[in-house]
Structure prediction request, 198 residues.
Amino acid sequence: MTLSLIGANIVLLAKNHNPSIVSKEWLTQNKIITEQILDFTHLPVISVIDTNNFNLMVDQDRLQLSLKKVDQKNLETLPQIISKYIDQLPETPYTTIDFNYSYRLENVQKKLKDVFLINDKRLTEIFSEDYAFGGIIKFVFGDFGVTFRTDQIEDKEIRGGFNFHFKSSKRGEIIKKLSKHSETKKRSEKILGELFHD
Prediction:
């Protein structure tokens, strides 16, 4: 199996984010984003910020911070940026935090069928020999509800995606969960290793 992380983001839901506050100047002055901002859209209902490494989108219900360049340093910076944002807007009624990871898995199609107990012969008879297969598994990891999804993206490549979901109206609990970001990524990769080991 070949495993590579191709995407990661943190989503922070609130009853009312205020995107009009999230300007280029505000992010820079408060040291929430410290690298150069390359592109910026600032409207009353949405703010979108692009740097070399990150994309930040804030609307009234949702903040999403995504990696544009996937590497270890940027992964470690993701929860730090969210923490700084929350610190600057403590009065915002936050409700949920999600950690999302997307992996490209190569040469695992047969293993995937074995894991999900697929009757390959029967499905080939029903569909065709060229059918693609995916699946969804939900489980709990600590305080997180987790959804794992797989689907085929190319001939021999599968995408495996994890969503670690934590719901709370307590700002302190949401901040505390940011310290679990690295742990949830490790758990994702451990699961993939156990599912698709050679």
Summary: The helical segments are 24-29, 72-88, 109-115, 120-126, 171-178, 181-196. The chain has a mean pLDDT of 90. The beta strands are 2-14, 39-42, 46-50, 54-59, 62-67, 94-106, 135-141, 144-154, 157-167.
